[in-house]
Amino acid sequence: MHSHRRALAALAAGAAFVAATPAHATPPTTVSEVRHVRLTLASCGSFSLISDVTVDRKLTTFYDPDGRPTRVALDRRLEGTFINSVSGASVPVTGNWRNVTYYTDGVPNGVITQTGRTYTVTVPGRGAIFLQAGHGIQVDGQTVFEVGPHDFEDRNFGEVCAYLAG
Length: 166
Known about the structure:
Layout: H1 2-20, E1 29-43, E2 48-63, E3 69-84, E4 90-104, E5 107-123, E6 127-139, E7 142-147, H2 158-165
Antiparallel strand pairs: 1-2, 2-3, 3-4, 4-5, 5-6, 6-7
């Protein structure tokens, strides 16, 4: 019986120690915003190509046990249309993209990764006629790895212009 009391006392002391120990992980923080963006993207000869999209952005910061940032993830989702400025003809555009900035000792260390489908325009019978997608890694502002089609970055609007011209 005496050993049971010691075991109970040890268990109670251990429980008190665990309860008094502060949590070591700072939970992630998230900031969200929604923006409506309308701008001219390119000239298609007889008309301008207009982008009219709603962008939902979520910025999440992750922390180490000392409360210093370890990475910041920007998740961006967009839905909208590319529009012929003269005729009003339009085609849907969507996107889903993640950009992660990495930190060392709470300071950005120069490494950024990008992943996803930034812009996709798909039309019936033709498939994707505009695509900015893939994965990239930048170190200190220089791209060290990149894969995937980059229609937006390369200003390759020809197929979208032709489709919207009718």
